């Protein structure tokens, strides 16, 4: 090893570190774009093999999605605005102080009563003062809302700009998928070329399958839960269904948390407690349907980890970085595991270790 | 005589065939330009120096190589009398690909060599996604293999 080579490598590493520092603000957007690209890729590839140029296929898909979003906005914005107006009118009534007004909101009121009841049965708990404190903080923050909006104007603008850049990123990732792959694989030295290709395909396949399965699962369980809860008659079925679908991402634990959320809503809204049993039954049927009918069809077999490992991973994830890491820790561990297994197998077969 | 409208049309839309050099390989001979584009998107360019080993005997097979330029020697330790020297526009790894995914011979570049590599997974995807393209490639592969067998029989 001569000195020129060492100096060159040091300079190269410095450049890479500087590059990472320079591009670090957009990493999160790049990751989101990659996720979006992975989700849309099968549709685009299918259209491509049907004879459509890739860029036309992507733009058509974007047009369809934009249309869907526009339709949703047109349908739901007026209702949202109406509710918002009501809320603003409600808050800005001058005869009642804001604190009082919020307590008069039906949902807050019922929570208040519920907590009062709990306090009466278990006197040591004294939840009521804490709840009052929470409401006060909420009111304070609500009053500061316009100020927050103005003071964070710049970051809001940049967020909006970057949200619009994600489709651009995804467009190029989707269009030049093969070229990007070729460029990445071409970096590998000849000796490791086939190994790199095998690992690349493995990771690509795993990530793609996992993300698409995840999306379909979330939508599937969300819709099924909403239908089941509506049949049972639980209020806010859509919101709870959506939450249950999202929580279903966490294997084993997610459905339970969703169930507890639904139970809490039933208790708070003053429905007879027997409803909880019906709700649990409905969600149980959804889980059975999902696990034994839909999951095998949609996903086939992807993640099969021992429940203990899953539990440990989820808990460790929650310590590491909160809810987001709870959601992503299991797939991350699974992918690392499968990558290392593939790496070990192939390194042996290529006589490298 | 080409008619003037055709000439005009050609002038307005100059049609340059891309990747037509791929037709030099027997298994891509019958593909049209659109299908060649699909194939080209899956190929990886690799450059090997003289005497560099491309793969060893007994390694797992992931890619089929097409020789763009240069010379490649195939040899086997088990059967030292078997030695093939392959030249431009020839393909190697195809037999092993159909045989069971293990390299039965070792490949070494005799001179500076450029190779095109087609991964097994991409090969299968091309065939599955586009049955017409797949039929053409498989048909040509069969022709190539049949020709090799014929030559072997003749030499015996």
Notes on the protein architecture:
- The complex is a heterodimer of chains A (353) and B (156).
- Chain A starts with a helix and ends with a helix.
- Chain A has helices at 3-23, 27-49, 54-91, 98-104, 106-121, 127-151, 153-175, 177-186, 193-232, 237-247, 254-268, 274-298, 307-349.
- The model of chain A has no long low-confidence stretch (mean pLDDT 80).
- Chain A has 353 residues and is mostly helical.
- Helices cover 84% and strands 0% of the residues of chain A.
- Chain B has one domain (18-155): Jelly Rolls (Sandwich), CATH 2.60.120.
- A four-stranded antiparallel beta sheet of chain B has the order 1-8-3-6. A four-stranded antiparallel beta sheet of chain B has the order 2-7-4-5, with no helix packed on it.
- In chain B, strand 4 and strand 5 form a beta hairpin.
- In chain B, helix 4 packs across helix 5.
- The N and C termini of chain B lie far apart (51 Å).
Keyphrases for this structure?
heterodimer; A: 353 residues; mainly alpha; 13 helices; globular; B: 156 residues; alpha+beta; Jelly Rolls; four-stranded antiparallel beta sheet; 8 strands; 24% strand; elongated
Shape of chain B: elongated
Count of all domains of chain B:
1
Largest interface: A-B, 17 and 22 residues
- What is the tally of beta strands of chain B? 8
CATH topology of chain B: Jelly Rolls
Task: Provide the gyration radius of chain A in Å.
Answer: 26 Å
The residue fraction in helices of chain A comes out at over 70%
Radius of gyration of chain B: 18 Å
* Mean of pLDDT of chain A: 80
Low-confidence stretches of chain B: none
Biggest sheet layout of chain A:
none
Strand content of chain A: under 5%
Query: What's the helix count of chain B?
Result: 5
The name of the CATH architecture of chain B is: Sandwich
**Widest sheet, order of strands of chain B:** 1-8-3-6
């Amino acid at each position: 090893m001569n000195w020129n080579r060492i100096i060159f490598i040091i300079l190269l590493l410095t450049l890479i570190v500087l590059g990472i520092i320079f591009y670090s603000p957009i990493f999160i957007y790049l990751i989101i774009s990659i996720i979006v690209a992975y989700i849309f890729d099968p549709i685009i590839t299918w259209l491509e093999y049907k004879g459509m140029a890739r860029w036309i296929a992507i733009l058509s898909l974007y047009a369809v999605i934009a249309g869907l979003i526009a339709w949703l906005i047109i349908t739901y914005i007026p209702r949202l605005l109406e509710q918002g107006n009501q809320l603003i009118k409600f808050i800005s009534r001058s005869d009642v102080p804001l604190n009082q007004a919020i307590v008069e909101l039906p949902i807050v009121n019922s929570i208040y009563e519920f907590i009062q009841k709990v306090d009466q049965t278990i006197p040591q708990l004294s939840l009521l003062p804490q709840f009052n404190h929470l409401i006060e903080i909420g009111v304070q923050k609500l009053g500061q809302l316009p100020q927050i909006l103005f003071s964070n104007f710049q970051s809001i603008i940049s967020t909006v700009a970057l949200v619009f850049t994600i489709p651009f990123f995804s467009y190029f990732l989707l269009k030049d998928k093969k070229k990007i792959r070729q460029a990445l694989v071409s970096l590998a030295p000849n000796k490791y070329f086939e190994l790199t290709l095998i690992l690349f395909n493995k990771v690509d396949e795993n990530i793609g399958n996992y993300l698409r399965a995840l999306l379909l699962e979330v939508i599937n369980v969300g819709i099924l839960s909403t239908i089941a809860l509506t049949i049972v008659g639980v209020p806010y079925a859509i919101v709870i269904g959506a939450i249950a679908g999202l929580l279903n991402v966490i294997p084993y634990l997610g459905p339970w948390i969703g169930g507890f959320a639904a139970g809490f809503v039933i208790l708070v809204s003053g429905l007879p407690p027997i409803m909880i049993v019906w709700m649990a039954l409905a969600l149980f049927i959804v889980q059975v349907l999902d696990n034994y009918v839909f999951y095998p069809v949609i996903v086939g077999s992807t993640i099969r980890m021992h429940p203990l490992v899953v539990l440990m991973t989820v808990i460790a994830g929650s310590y590491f970085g909160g809810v987001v890491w709870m959601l992503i820790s299991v797939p991350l561990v699974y992918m690392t595991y499968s990558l290392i297994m593939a790496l070990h197998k192939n390194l042996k077969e290529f006589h490298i270790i | 005589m080409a008619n003037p409208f055709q000439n005009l049309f050609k002038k307005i839309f100059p049609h340059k065939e891309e990747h037509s050099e791929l037709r030099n390989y027997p298994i891509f001979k019958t593909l049209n330009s659109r299908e060649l584009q699909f194939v080209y998107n899956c190929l990886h360019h690799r450059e090997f120096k003289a005497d560099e080993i491309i793969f060893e005997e007994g390694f797992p097979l992931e890619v089929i190589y097409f020789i763009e330029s240069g010379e490649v020697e195939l040899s086997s330790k088990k059967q030292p009398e078997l030695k093939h020297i392959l030249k431009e526009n020839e393909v190697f790894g195809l037999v092993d690909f159909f045989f069971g995914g293990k390299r039965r011979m070792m490949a070494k570049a005799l001179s500076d060599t450029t190779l095109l590599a087609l991964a097994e997974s991409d090969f299968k995807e091309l065939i599955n996604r586009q049955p017409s393209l797949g039929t053409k490639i498989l048909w040509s592969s069969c022709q190539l293999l049949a020709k090799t067998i014929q030559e072997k029989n003749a030499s015996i």
